[in-house]
Q: What sequence folds into this?
């Protein structure tokens, strides 16, 4: 159950491009249809070639999702030379971080994530309206594998 702790004053966050959220720990970077289209254009590849080279299929609950691959050390497949090689076209999941339901579920969850992210609780203050727009857009960007392929 969410305690909506952010509804009083919003939250501060400004990405420092430290790359802590895209390296070292295993995880999924789910792609929406929009993400896939943007990355395919950026890489000048066919859909099939891009998926074969950069993606994996994962099962979450009863759904199959398309996720970016990780390197053996768990860095994102697009992390290189100290940063994101596709930053301008990074997936919505990356752009919407840290305004995810899992971190907004409680003050404790937010503060726990902030221990690994120097941009949280610093920089620009995001209003409740902006945060809820991120959440709504994130819900609209969730696609199953069948939607994408």
A:
């Amino acid at each position: 159950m969410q305690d909506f702790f952010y509804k009083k004053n919003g939250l501060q966050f400004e990405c420092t491009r430290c790359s802590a959220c895209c390296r070292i720990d295993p995880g999924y970077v789910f792609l929406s249809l929009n993400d896939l289209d943007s990355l395919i254009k950026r890489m000048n590849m066919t859909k099939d070639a891009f998926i074969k080279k950069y993606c994996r299929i994962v099962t979450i609950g009863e759904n199959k999702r398309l996720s970016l691959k990780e390197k053996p050390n768990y860095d994102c497949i697009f992390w290189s030379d100290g940063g994101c090689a596709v930053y301008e076209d990074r997936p919505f999941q990356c752009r919407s971080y840290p305004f995810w339901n899992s971190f907004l579920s409680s003050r404790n969850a937010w503060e726990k994530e902030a221990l690994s992210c120097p941009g949280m609780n610093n920089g620009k203050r995001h209003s409740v309206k902006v945060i809820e727009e991120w959440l709504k857009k994130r819900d609209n960007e969730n696609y199953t594998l069948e939607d994408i392929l």
